[in-house]
Structures are given as structure tokens and as C-alpha cells.
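Lab notebook, bench 4. The sequencing result for the construct came back, and we need a structural model before the next group meeting so we can plan mutations. Quick request posted to the team channel:

Model the 3D structure of this chain.
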Amino acid sequence: MSERWPGDEHEESDVLEVEDDRLEEEEHVHELPLEEEPLISGDEEEGGDTPVPGGATQQHAGGELDIPDDVDVIEGMPEGGRRNIAIVASRFNGEITNRLLESALAELDKLGVRREAIVVMPVPGAFELPLAAMALAKTRRYAAVIALGCVIRGETPHFDYVASEAASGLQLAALETGVPVAFGVLTVEAVEQAEARIEKGAEAVRTALEMADAFAQLRASASTR
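Done. Here's the predicted structure in C-alpha cell form:
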């Protein structure tokens, strides 16, 4: 016969109560519905889903802008003509920025911009792009400025600061000078994502020329009124 000390009865009942509570918690856990995995699609044309960090997807609405026929429209076209174009390109992540530059130059050739009408200004990194773009725009020699660069996320917050300052600085250059500045800077999580977006160089060219043409039409319209 085992020896039992006063108070053992309470300890034993406490243990049983704890075990009962644990069993109830385990049963409750098994009853919880399983969470569904987020659907992540690959990069698609405009109108598809674009993956974003965290497993979510960002939706892009398709369709064209529908403008009524009874209003005047000033709409630029991505045409080169006799326009002078400046490109400011980051040397950092040169493996990617070289290909962005190649993409941009090929698109300028395709759209009829003469090579002698193009100037390329290299800078150390993406952080220096806004200052160079501002300086080029202030000369008034160029119909548009195209900024090319690549910022890849690392293990520190450096990425966020550089990407944010590059974007806001390039916008400021355009706002202060009135010269279109096209954003051809890749902000990605890994090199593989950058390699899949090299056509951003050509896209920036089309944006720059479209805005330059729209501004030319605006000036012509204002001068005849």
C-alpha cells in the first residue's frame, strides 16, 4: 500500500483538470478550418495579376480610356521624329542596366529617333538618377529624359530608401522643369525578377515619347489661341 501524504488528493485532481483542459484544446484545434494557400500567378500583360511580396496578388484592370467625341483631345503618340532624347543610366547592377539600355536604344531606333539625337549620361547608382535627370532637363535641349536603373532588395532597409528616393526625385525633376521624365527603374526582390522585366527600358522610351508629343501638341494648341 503506497503512502499518501495530506494534500496529495488536491494535487492529483489538479493534474486531471489540466489534462482535461489540454484534451479540449487539442480537440478545438482539430476543428479549426485549414487556411487556403494564396493563389500566385506569373507575370502577365496588363489586366492580369502581378505577384507582390507576401504571397498576395495585385489586380490590374484592363480596358481602354473611353473619351467622348464632343471634347477636344490632346493625346501624344510614341513617335521619335526630330526630338532629342536624354538617357540617364545607373552603373550599379550593370548586368541588368546594360540590358535596360540596350532595350531602350533598340526602341528609340524602332521609333525613328536618330542616334545623334540621343545622349546617355551614366551615374553611379539609382540614388543619383534624379539629380542627373534634373540637370539634363534644365538644359532645355531634350524633349524627354529616360531614367534607367535597377534596385534589388537586400537584407537591410537600404532598398526601401533608395527605391523611394529615386521615384520621388525623378518625379520632382519632371514637375520642376516641365520636361517628361520616364521611370525605367526596376525595383525587385531578386535578379531573376529583374531579368524578366528588361523590356521596362523600351516601355520607358514609349512613355517618354508619348508625353513629349503630348506636350508639343499642347504648346502648339496654346500658341494658336
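The mean pLDDT is 81.
Will bring this to the meeting.
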